[in-house]
Hints:
Elements: H1 27-44, H2 48-61, H3 66-79, H4 82-95, H5 100-112, H6 116-127, H7 135-148, H8 152-165, H9 170-183, H10 186-198, H11 204-217, H12 220-234, H13 238-244
Helix pairs in contact: 1-2, 1-3, 2-3, 3-4, 3-5, 4-5, 5-6, 5-7, 6-7, 7-8, 8-9, 9-10, 10-11, 11-12, 11-13
Amino acid sequence: MLFLSGCASTGGAGSQNELPTLSDQTDNQKRARIRLQLAIGYYEQRQMVVALDEIKQAIAADPSFADAYSMRGLIYMDMGENRLAEDNFLQAIRLAPNTPDFNNNYGWFLCQNGREKQSIQYFEAALKNRAYQSPAKALNNAGFCSLKINDKVAAERYFSQAFQADPANPATNVNLARLYFERGDYERARFYVTRVMKADVMTADVLWLAIRIEHKLGDRAAEASLANQLRRRHAGSAEYAAYQRGAFNE
């Protein structure tokens, strides 16, 4: 749902009638980008303090490197340092206001911190950029945050647009399956959850959703088959415990 722009920061030697590319970067900008890549690696290994130090060195080399601030925002968000996270997300947006990933990242931060209504404008800002390579990410986030404020009409619109943008995206299909299940449209819910399982996404929550859909549709053979998969794959899960006690409506 998150991550960086992947774009070079401005300030290189390109002419005025062309966009800057990596070859236009100064030595300081190149050093900053190397430090950022190291920070991302440490972040993925959950070595947050080391990642922050690499980000610090990236910013020291290039104080205008917007990607570094957005990455530092993600790290601070994971650490629960919300004030520092917000400061860095906003700094990234100030430096590159039209970068879709920066707007998506900050929108997700707002959504996770009880500011769902405010988050929508940042997802919309991300989606306005026609060069955005992963619009389904922001659309799914906007749909999820719309559900949190009980705006199911908006949620369906965002999830449907996400499906149009990337029909194979498992998150999109799960979101639509859940939305239609809760609405009582079980056939449509089955359509989307089946697409998820065909992509070999067999997490406990997906299997449990599929089981509840088949239970509502009255297909006991399909329900039993899915329950057997849930038992084999996730016997110790809360979802399998719910199945055993027949908690289909919880």
